Amino acid sequence: MKQSFEEFLQVYLSIWESSDLEGMKRIISEDYRAREITGEEILDFGFEESVEGWKNGFEYVVQNNAKWDISIHSVFPLRNNQVMAVIEAAMIIDKEKLPHANLFFSTFSQSGNEWKLVRSYIEAGVQRQLSPSPGLSS
Question: InterPro entries, per this entry (predicted)?
Fold first, then answer.
């Protein structure tokens, strides 16, 4: 499981970094559930709202000639077929790293040979971390 997840995670990050909406749609489970916290605002959402959020984010990156700045802070198994990854994502615009990031606690589930994003808890607009865990940057 560990090797297949590590390979999947690299594909997932590649899709994210290239702002590939169709690729992201294939990775998100149709039963996906998420909670995002922005300041005091709490938003619960599912697959359709997630796809719309990724679409908006990817369009913003393209329109602003930005790049994603993504770091993996930790990865650990939850169950026999589930793994959680803690991912920090921000943007770089005009070679300047934006001061805030989103922190994703993302749970992926394996069914057969296929991994899907099934749950997320997201802290939006947090101060960027100075450095990720050693050896886990993308």
Answer: NTF2-like_dom_sf
Burial class (CB in 10 A: 0-12, 13-18, 19+), 126: middle
Quickly count: other Cβ atoms within 10 Å of residue 129's Cβ: 13
Q: What is the rounded CA–CA span in Å between residue 33 and residue 57?
A: 18
Using CB atoms within 10 Å of the CB of residue 47, give its burial: 0 to 12 exposed, 13 to 18 middle, 19+ buried: middle
CA–CA separation, 91 and 88 (whole Å): 10
pLDDT over 50 (residue 137): no
Full set of structural domains in the chain with CATH: 2-127 (3.10.450.50)
